[in-house]
Amino acid sequence: MAIMPLSIAVIPWAILAGSMAINAGLSFAKALAMSSMVFAGAAQLVSLSLVIEGVSKLTILITIFFLTAQHFIYALTFRNNISILPLKQRLSLGFLLTDELFAISLSPDKRHPDYMLGAGLCFYLFWVIFSIVGIVMANMIPNLSDYHLDFSIVAIFIAMVVPLIKNFKVVIAVLITCLSGFMLRFYQVEGAILISGLLGMLTAVTLEQFEKESQT
């Protein structure tokens, strides 16, 4: 139930990913395999866009590596809770670990493996089922991407980020990220999203360090 709102919000995103896979030239089986085995919304959409543009495989791999690098941080955050589990459970939770699962399991009392497994499986089923819907719709409704289903990506991340804004430092970091992102995109700076994200994180770390030094 905790992840149900995010699971519902991801429906347009999953439909878009499924339809884009078909538009990129993948067969039904390959499109389904991508959603069920890769299971990474942003990575799927970006990689499919790069495939459509004819970008090299190495460029796609490097781009996706940096795009999903935050999962290293997620894994380190849960390490003390997950490392004591058997390998089979660790691998299952590692596969199901998404931005959404991290968001609802961030509180220490929510890190029980059964809770995380149930939430992760729920989100996974929504993603795969509605990716299939997108795959089918791609053959029925032309130019499905023109319906701006990608707005669901923005909506779902807003729903995850807002509850985490609990102090002044985070507010400043989020504002810096948003403002720098808008400015860099306006001036068509390549890698604007990545740069703005790094600026936001640097701001948060700097403010945290400044607060610690002022207290000593």
Computed structural class: mainly alpha
The global form is globular
Low-pLDDT sequence parts: none
Rg computed from alpha carbons, rounded to a whole number of angstroms? 19 Å
Short description, anyone?
The chain is mainly alpha-helical.
Describe this structure in words.
- This protein has about 220 residues and is an all-alpha fold.
- The protein has 2 domains: about 5-150, no CATH class; about 165-215.
- Helix content is about 75%, strand content about 0%.
- The protein has helices at about 5-10, 10-25, 30-40, 40-50, 55-65, 70-75, 80, 85-95, 100-105, 115-140, 150-160, 170-185, 190-215.
- α4 (about 40-50) runs antiparallel to α5 (about 55-65).
- It is globular, with a radius of gyration of 19 Å.
Keywords for this entry:
single chain; mainly alpha; 2 domains; 0% strand
Explain the layout of strands and helices.
Elements: H1 4-9, H2 11-23, H3 28-38, H4 41-52, H5 57-67, H6 70-77, H7 79-82, H8 87-96, H9 99-104, H10 113-140, H11 151-161, H12 168-186, H13 192-215
